[in-house]
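Researcher: Quick test of sequence recovery. Tokens follow.
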């Protein structure tokens, strides 16, 4: 009985101390960034071909970005959380931490170039380009429920994470984690 009790106590202490000594790398990213709106997919979701438009009306296919880390951010000028996160998204895109990063800022409202350009100018957005989803192809593909929503796609055109709501894209732990996909 004494041996069993001793074994149990040693095992219990080992479990407690081993869990205390875990590094940050063992802790899920959403705890590191203290933001519950980041969801890392348990299963990678293949992305089909999605057609959208740039600010000049040219059609673009999402498949053209195969081989790159792609962040797709859905936003609107009237969306306060979009306005809050857009500068950090622009800063992430300008970051030198990534070689293969593409950020697609998809405006989901009725196309109004003057209003959108003013929105970017007011926020001092320098690198992001404006894209549109006038046929709601992205909405259908990603089953969007609100904005801002950000989809993270790996080099194999698979969704590996999703962010709903405002997010700080300059968070150092997030950037370190994201660089593993570059």
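Model:
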């Amino acid at each position: 009985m004494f041996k069993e009790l001793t074994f149990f106590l040693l095992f219990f202490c080992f479990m407690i101390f081993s869990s205390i000594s875990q590094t940050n790398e063992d802790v899920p990213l959403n705890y590191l960034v203290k933001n519950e709106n980041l969801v890392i997919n348990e299963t990678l979701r293949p992305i089909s071909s999605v057609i959208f438009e740039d600010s000049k009306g040219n059609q673009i296919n999402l498949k053209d970005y195969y081989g790159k880390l792609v962040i797709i951010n859905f936003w609107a000028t009237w969306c306060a959380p979009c306005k809050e996160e857009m500068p950090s998204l622009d800063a992430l895109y300008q970051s030198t931490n990534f070689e293969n990063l593409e950020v697609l800022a998809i405006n989901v409202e009725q196309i109004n170039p003057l209003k959108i350009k003013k929105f970017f100018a007011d926020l001092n957005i320098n690198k992001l380009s404006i894209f549109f989803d006038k046929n709601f192809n992205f909405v259908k593909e990603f089953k969007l429920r609100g904005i801002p929503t950000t989809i993270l796609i790996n080099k194999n055109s698979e969704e590996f994470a999703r962010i709903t709501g405002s997010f700080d894209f300059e968070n150092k732990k997030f950037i370190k984690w994201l660089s593993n996909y570059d």
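The helical segments are 2-20, 29-32, 80-94, 113-122, 137-142, 172-178.
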